[in-house]
Design brief:
Number of strands: 13
Strand content: 15-25%
Protein name: LpxI family protein
CATH class of the largest domain: Alpha Beta
Radius of gyration: 19 Å
InterPro entries: LpxI, LpxI_C, LpxI_C_sf, LpxI_N
CATH superfamily of the largest domain: LpxI C-terminal catalytic domain
Distance between the termini: 38 Å
Shape: globular
Length: about 270
Amino acid sequence: MEAPVGLVAGEGKGPLILVKALKSKGREVVAVAFSDEQAARLEEAGARVACLRLGQFGKLLKTFRGAGVREVCLLGKVEKPRALREALPDLRALLLWKRLASRNDDALLREVCREFEKEGLRVVSPADLLPELLTPEGVLTRKAPSKEEWEDIRFGLSLAREIGRLDIGQCVVVKDRMVVAVEAMEGTDETIRRAGRLRQGAVVVKVMKPNQDPRLDLPAAGADTVRVMQEAGARVLALEAGRSLLFEREEALRLAEEAKISIVGVS
């Protein structure tokens, strides 16, 4: 019998989708959640769940070791403002935090990954466990981007890679080859909403950071992203093919068709 998969579960539907899909393949999941609400959802989805405070890294490691976990996957949103406000770091987490020269997402996640590996836990990508979650290449909706929107996609790709190289964020929103919004600490959904208050009909581009560890924090979108785009009046979602996750693909594409939003996988 295979050892259970350890899941460090942030908020959102991604961790729930992973648990249900792995359960359908006969894999047990031991999940650590950081809110009672997400813990309850994960338990209902079929995971064995421990609910901890953000920063209780020693307890998290003890939970996985005690359950016989050998592989660990990190998935879901952990909002940095909330983490900074609510974290209750233990000694292991404090020592990790003090070692960081930069406290941006990539640097923090790489150090967390090293700590797992010191404990003999192999960190894997959600795409290693479920490759079907990766965004395919091409136009995924019946409605393709217009010529002008393709120009915005190309413009946005170069910008998104540059802000990614600086470890700022993964997403930019552009219109008429002008930058409308850049993702930072607030996350993709809030970036899209902010863009909607400034410019309608925009193009959302989301890519993996050039120096990013592909096991950690892959760009992700799904049905909820499309709902936010509809609310904000955005017209195109461009995701990096093979290097981003598209959750609830059928539902996301159905909603996009209804809202006349184009979704494309670009390389």
